[in-house]
Amino acid sequence: MKTESQEQATFGGGCFWCTEAVFQEVKGVTQVVSGYAGGSVPGKPTYREVCSGLTGHAEVVQVTYNPREVSYRELLIIFMTTHDPTTLNRQGADVGTQYRSVIFYHDDKQKEVAEAVLLSLKSYYEKPIITELSPLPKFFEAEDYHQDYYSNNSEQGYCQYVISPKLSKLREQYADKLK
Question: Does this model's pTM top 0.85?
Answer without folding.
Answer: yes
